[in-house]
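A sample copied in:

***
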Amino acid sequence: MSAAAVTICAGAKGGQGTTTIAVTLALLAARTRPTLLVDTLGDAAAVLGIADVDPSRTLDQALADAAEPASGLRLAHIAADRIDAATVDRLGCLAAGGHRVIVDTGTDHSALHSFDRLRPCRLLVTHACYLALRRAIAVPFTPDHVVLVNDSRRALTEHDVSLALALPVISVPHDPSIARAIDAGLLAARLPRCLTHTLRHLVTD
């Protein structure tokens, strides 16, 4: 499978791990090609253990102010309501020029639709819990994949989620090593194997 040049990460509800998945994909993509992580919420810097990146009004400003938390990776923060047609066109040019673009839109599904003409890979991040699954069924877009943060203590299984959503599911274990890496500010330096093993095929050709 050839990975899409643009990947959008969206959550069924808050607190599902969407930003962690987006950051992980960006770190993995940056190992093989220049990568831009577009953060519409402002949470990615905290997950990466770096100082907050100020929100920008335009993509040009966001690129000028972008942080570089890892080799080959830039982090730009631009609010969802500032993503206009010109911004999307510019991101499309970056993708066409060889960049991988990862966008974290969280639960702002209107922002996700701003990127439709780039034909992105759309990932829905959810947990295996009843409330999250109800929200996931009702999202106003059709995901290409579901990334399930799978806690073995839950009654619902990966199979249950796949059947309910009628979509392929990529299961990421609910592993304490992920939280420890984030809390220590070491996710970029010590990306847990449980994340790299399950997600790398989404961003590497």
Remarks:
- The chain has one domain: 9-202.
- The two ends are 7 Å apart (CA to CA).
